[in-house]
Amino acid sequence: MASFILRRLLVSVLIIVAASFLMYMLVAYSADPLADLRSSNSPNKTQLINARIQLLQLDIAPPLRWLLWLGGAAKCLIPFANSCDLGSTISNAKVVDILPQALTSTVQLVTVALILAILLGVTIGIVTALRQYSGLDNVVTFLSFFLYSLPAFLVAVLLKEFVAIGFNNFLATPAIPWWVAILIGVVAGLIWQSLIGGDMRRRGITFGVSGVATAGVLLLMSATNWFLHPGLGPVVMIVLVAGTVIGATALTAGLQNRRALISAGIAGAISLVCYFGLQWLFNISTPATIAILAIIAVLVSLAIGWFVGGYDRGQNMRVAVLVTIVSGFLILVDRFMQAWPTYFQETNGRPIATVGSSTPGLTGDMWVTGLDTFTHLALPTVALLLISFASYTRYSRAGMLEVLGQDFIRTARAKGLPERTVVVRHAFRNMLIPITTLVAFDVGALLGGAIITEKVFAIPGMGSLFNAGLQRGDLNPVMAYFLVIAVMAILFNFLADLSYAALDPRVRVR
């Protein structure tokens, strides 16, 4: 393992050095950082040109300039030395000073989009594989390829027009007409009956119940002015936590496993107690407080699974942790909803942002600022999510179908194992093997798509830094973007290689 890691690190360094040289030469010989000054009518034009030449070392040949840049970039590898030097921009700003803020915005955006794409894509891919050639499978296949074929800038513009502007206009008079609620209920009924499946009687019952419930909830939300004063409330929270307990147990261990059900029930009950008992603490919380509470909650859930015991303590611990994580997420969502009226007033009744990464001059606690971050990143995240959604859905579906047709799956079914165990414990792990490769490549694709998305939504991230540098002939910000992209791409490919050994016992890293 040690020799493998050392070899991969050496090869990765050589790849970065060679690719950086090519990138540096292409930008250096194709862009003119003095173009704006040469066309200037300033009386001290000559002095400005000489100052920029000296600042950017333009009097040195590009290959030698690349060596100087490489030497400064190599200093970034020295820990705690604070000697990293990626050069300066045209406006005489240190790249290492402006890079962290841009990197934070982009990583925040891309990370959320990547996680959601994996979770939604893999889940829907598995469901469509289990419902092969059904109406749901055909519809998901059509939507996946349709959305995948749309260019990123068009998706971003459509989201701004119909989601941001449209929803902000709706909030001016948030009332849902009865016919719209019925129409949405019909669509929801069609979706749920496709997901549940079964004979015509079962599909009809699912369609009717889900359609009536959806339409009723929408009309109730409209009547109670829920869109301006949202919240889950005690009753809904109890129902959601109870559903989480049952769903997590059924998915992970099966409802017949009493110890797993007890572990999940205890974790859910403690989550509800915290929901009612810690509201005062949430009002004065900081991100550090929430992080400490999250760590304590996970440790408590692990202890619950351990002490409940049984022949599979690990399974009980996983169930308890899953219930705790989902319940904690619901608690945070409810608390953010409670801050919505304040944020709505701070944004003058236009809460869904179309540009920027934050609202200028906004003040408030962590809940208000958290909502501000969410409303600014929601649409760019969805735009990037649609880039990757189709790939994960198709790969997951194809991988699951391939695994379900193999001999060890037929053997597991012949032994009488429940279908849940066959899918979750045997097929799911093997299906993830090709997904690890897709994740490694998708990081680079998402970062590339972030250039267009950040341009449309005016987000000051890595994409904006790269785009502005390329247009102005500002070489050092472009190379900083390249360096971050290259390191992340190589890192994720390295992690993918290690994941093969963890997912497939037949693979050994040598």
What's this model, at a glance?
With 510 residues, the chain is an all-alpha fold. It has helices at 2-30, 35-38, 45-56, 62-74, 95-130, 135-149, 152-172, 178-196, 200-223, 233-252, 258-277, 279-283, 287-308, 313-338, 340-346, 366-404, 407-414, 419-457, 462-472, 475-503.
Major β-sheet profile: none
Shape: globular
**Fraction in beta strands:** under 5%
What structural class should be given to the helix and strand makeup? mainly alpha
Structural domains: how many: 3
Total DSSP helices: 20
Please trace the helix and strand order, writing H or E for each element. Answer: HHHHHHHHHHHHHHHHHHHH
* Assembly context of the chains: single chain
Poorly predicted runs: none
Mean pLDDT: 86
Could you tell me how far the N terminus lies from the C terminus, measured between alpha carbons in angstroms? 6 Å
Radius of gyration: 27 Å
Percent of residues in helical segments?
Answer: over 70%
Total strand segments: 0
Any descriptors?
510 residues, mainly alpha, globular
Notes on the structure:
It is a single chain. The protein is mainly alpha-helical and 510 residues long. The chain folds into 3 domains: 2-98 and 465-503, no CATH class; 100-173 and 229-446, no CATH class; 175-224, no CATH class. Helix content is 78%, strand content 0%. The protein has 20 helices and no strands. It is globular. The termini are close together. The mean pLDDT is 86.
Give me the secondary-structure topology:
Blueprint: H1 2-30, H2 35-38, H3 45-56, H4 62-74, H5 95-130, H6 135-149, H7 152-172, H8 178-196, H9 200-223, H10 233-252, H11 258-277, H12 279-283, H13 287-308, H14 313-338, H15 340-346, H16 366-404, H17 407-414, H18 419-457, H19 462-472, H20 475-503
